[in-house]
Amino acid sequence: MKISSYKELKAYQKSYELAKLLYEITKDFPREEMYGITSQLRRACISIPSNIAEGYMRGSKEYIQFLKVALGSAAELETQICLSKDLGFLKDVDFNKLNDLNVEVMKLLTFYITRLKNK
Fold first, then answer.
1. CA 99 to CA 101: how far, in whole Å?
2. DSSP class of 6
3. Quick one: DSSP state of residue 1?
4. Neighbours of 102 (CB within 10 A)
5. How far is CA 24 from CA 42, 63, 94, 106, 108, in A?
6. Domains and CATH numbers, the chain
7. Distance between CA 101 and CA 80 in Å, rounded?
8. How far apart (Å, rounded) are the C-alpha atoms in residues 17 and 75?
9. Calpha distance 31→52 (Å, rounded)
10. Distance between the two ends of the chain, CA-based, in angstroms?
11. Cβ 112 vs Cβ 71: under 8 Å
12. Cα angle vertex 23, ends 37, 79, to 5°?
């Protein structure tokens, strides 16, 4: 099956879903964190589907590099959601939702990168 748009990619769909979920959850973060961890979380999270889309549209030569950047942002996000939980900003249920979805995105990105490298 030929993919005709980045929007058809499972990693894009899941990372877009992750970004929407994270925005909803971080609405309840402390106001004093608006320019701290809340901003960091949101920027890292938005970077994932954005880099998948940009890399796809630029073409195969740069695509792997953009997928690696997206994977790096997912790792950054993983650190930040763990810290948010440890600081008491995230409830266990919200942490689990975000973390599980992020892990799924990271696995998909790793698979895509490996597959493209071996082409």
1. 5
2. G
3. -
4. 24
5. 10, 30, 10, 21, 23
6. 7-23+32-117 (1.20.1440.60)
7. 14
8. 17
9. 31
10. 16
11. no
12. 40
Token couple for 40 = 């960091």
pLDDT in tens, 57-84: 998 779 999 999 999 999 999 999 999 9
49: tokens are 């589907």
* 34: amino acid identity, one letter: M
Over residues 92-119, the mean pLDDT reads: 96
Q: What is the pTM of this model?
A: 0.94
Q: State the residue for tokens 């990693």.
A: 11
| C-alpha–C-alpha distance, residues 110 and 119, integer Å | 15
The residue type found at 35 is Y
pLDDT band at residue 3 under the 50/70/90 scheme: confident
Q: Which residue is it, tokens 């689990």?
A: 96
Q: Which two tokens stand for residue 28?
A: 């309840």
What does the block give as tokens for 72?
Answer: 């790096």
